[in-house]
Every structure is written in structure tokens, then in C-alpha cells.
Design goal:
By secondary structure, the chain is mostly helical. It is built from seven helices and two strands. The chain has a single domain (2-136), classed as Winged helix-like DNA-binding domain superfamily/Winged helix DNA-binding domain (Arc Repressor Mutant, subunit A, Orthogonal Bundle), CATH 1.10.10. GO terms for molecular function: DNA binding; DNA-binding transcription factor activity.
Length: 137
């Protein structure tokens, strides 16, 4: 049974994803932000206007999960939610000045982490990895 688990593609991918997430979490914790929060801020800063439904689809996360993450960002004053006129259930989300400052403070950390991870592969290996991941996603 143990052999079957270790030879499972799903197990290997999940284990690798967990290790990557733990590593970036450790780095970002010093700044007081979780990776899920940081990625949402990054996406929001590059979007003109985004709502929770769009964000959930982009991240392949449930709307409830995205809502909880946005609530955490709002409590930290990193985003503000604005009601959409005519639809009290819908919100447009904007990054605050504090949120932009957080992105700037953590940019070097995230870029270095991404670069170090990328440097583990040759360009050809990275292209193969992306193709394989795309095949199973």
C-alpha cells in the first residue's frame, strides 16, 4: 500500500505543492500576509475592476474561500469592497494604499522565491513541466 501511495501522481503533486506553499508561507509570515492573500492582492492590483465571482473563477477556488480571504484582507485594510449599484450582493474590490505598500514590501521576497524555484529547471524542463501540469489540470 505504501508503495502505491508514493507512486501516485496525485500524491507527488500534492506533496510538492504543500512543500512549496510551506516555504512561501514561512517567508511571507514575517510580513504578516499569507500566500493566498498576497496572490489575491497581486491579481486585484492588475485588474481594473474585479468581483468575487471573477476572482473565484480565476483561482479555481470556491466563492466562500475567496470571500473569507477577502474578509481577511479587508480587516487588514489592504482592500476595500464597494457595493455595486443596484446589486447589494455584489462588490467591487479595490486595493488600498496599504495594500499597494504590502505588495511593494513583499515583491522582492516573492520574485526571489519564484526565481529560485524556476532556476531548478532548464527552459526545456520547465516547458515540459508546464505541458504535463496542463495535461492533468
Amino acid at each position: 500500500m505504501k508503495e502505491a501511495v508514493h507512486n501516485s501522481v496525485g500524491f507527488r503533486i500534492a506533496r510538492t505543492a504543500n512543500r512549496i506553499n510551506q516555504a512561501i508561507t514561512t517567508l511571507l509570515n514575517e510580513e504578516g500576509i499569507a500566500p493566498e492573500q498576497r496572490i489575491l492582492l497581486e491579481i486585484l492590483s492588475s485588474c481594473e475592476k474585479a468581483n468575487q465571482t471573477t476572482l473565484a473563477a480565476m483561482l479555481n477556488k470556491s466563492p466562500t474561500t475567496v470571500s473569507r480571504t477577502l474578509d481577511s484582507l479587508e480587516k487588514k485594510a489592504l482592500i476595500i469592497k464597494k457595493e455595486v449599484l443596484g446589486d447589494k450582493r455584489a462588490n467591487l474590490i479595490e486595493v488600498t494604499a496599504e495594500g499597494k505598500a504590502m505588495l511593494e514590501r513583499t515583491e522582492a521576497i516573492v520574485n526571489a522565491f519564484r526565481q529560485n524555484l524556476s532556476n531548478l529547471f532548464t527552459p526545456e524542463e520547465k516547458q515540459t513541466l508546464f505541458a504535463l501540469l496542463e495535461k492533468i489540470s
